[in-house]
Amino acid sequence: MELIRTWILGLTGAAVITGLALSLTPKSRVRSVMRLVCGAVMIIALIKPVLEFDFETYSVGLAQYRADMDRITAAARETSDRLQRTIIEEECSAYILDKARILGLDCTVAAVTVKWGDEGYWYPYEAHLQIKGPDQQKNNLAGLIEAELGIPRGRQYWSNDENQGN
User: Fold this and answer.
1) Is residue 142 part of a domain?
2) How many domains in the chain?
3) Does one domain contain both 154 and 99?
4) Residues 89, 155: one domain?
5) According to the model, what pLDDT value does residue 164 have?
6) Whether the predicted pLDDT of 113 surpasses 70
7) What is the pLDDT of residue 140?
8) Beta strand segments in 92-142, E
């Protein structure tokens, strides 16, 4: 911004000085020469920033800008992926807790882990559950988890005791 300000001030100053010089010059051959000189001064004032432009600094700045942009984009993509993963895990866990409540089961923990698929999205991969209740109801819940979330019974880890490991 400072560069543009300096350029405009220089251009304005050159215009004022050349205008003054032309107005003070008498009408003769000298005025024709003065017009030529003033035109050259205005052209120099107009293109001076281009001549003084530091292309090396601009190139380095542009490369730094691109590197910053790539870093910020990667960080945003990573944050977005993390948020999507967390949301899917929480929604799947909430779904299991809700279905367990409807089936009359006492579910204290329903943790769903998601995995990145070859298709380019997160999908529910496994579930860790701490549930108390009748085996028939647990079997019904296991079927719902498999049918609705796509987590096969082999990746559903059930526990009756909150202190028991998975």
Assistant:
1) yes
2) 2
3) yes
4) yes
5) 46
6) yes
7) 93
8) 106-116, 122-132
What distances in angstroms separate CA 72 from CA 59, 69, 77, 160, one per listed residue? 20, 5, 9, 45
Quote the domain boundaries for residue 29: 2-53
Residue 78, exposed/middle/buried by CB under 10 A (0-12, 13-18, 19+)?
A: exposed
Does the global pTM surpass 0.85? Answer: no
How much is the pLDDT for 87? 94
Helix (H) or strand (E) holding 159: strand 156-159
DSSP-assigned letter for residue 155: G
Interval 118-157: pLDDT, tens: 888 899 999 999 999 888 999 999 999 999 999 999 999 9
Structure tokens, 134 = 């009748």
Look at residue 77 and tell me if it is in a domain.
no
Q: What gap in Å lies between CA 42 and CA 73, rounded to an integer?
A: 44
Do 101 and 39 belong together in one domain? Answer: no
How far is Cα 47 from Cα 39, in angstroms, rounded to an integer?
12
d(Cα 38, Cα 24) in Å, to the nearest integer? 13
What is d(CA 56, CA 79) in angstroms, rounded to the nearest whole number? 34
CATH number, domain containing residue 135:
3.30.300.30
Q: What is the pLDDT confidence band of residue 46, given thresholds at 50, 70 and 90?
A: confident
**Partners of 128 in the beta sheet?**
111, 157
